Amino acid sequence: MAQALVTRRSSIIPDQELIVDCGATHHMLNSEHIFVSLVKTPLVKVRTGYSSSSLFSKGTGTFIIISDGKVFNLEKCLFAPRLNCNLISLLGLNKDKITINR
Q1: pLDDT tens per residue, range 60-95
Q2: Can you give the residue ranges of the Retrovirus-related Pol polyprotein from transposon TNT 1-94-like beta-barrel domain (predicted)?
Q3: Which is nearest to 34 in space by CA: 83, 68, 69?
């Protein structure tokens, strides 16, 4: 069963939410302006849970999250402008030894 955690809106991206997704293998963001660094790449197809839909990444970059006064650099985030919401990969957080407490 897939599960996700929806975060509250922040001053960084006040018009959008971040969703922590246990099924995502990469962090994926849909807005170019929220990256602190971004390298544009040729279109790369991204596999999603919906096999009939196509999603493409147009680059990779770094996104910063600040939580409880700690700064976390999330690197190799995919820039997917057609994504409906921003996804933070729980697997990616675990690989970077970043934990989430309830």
Answers
A1: 999 998 877 888 899 999 999 999 889 999 999 999
A2: 19-95
A3: 83
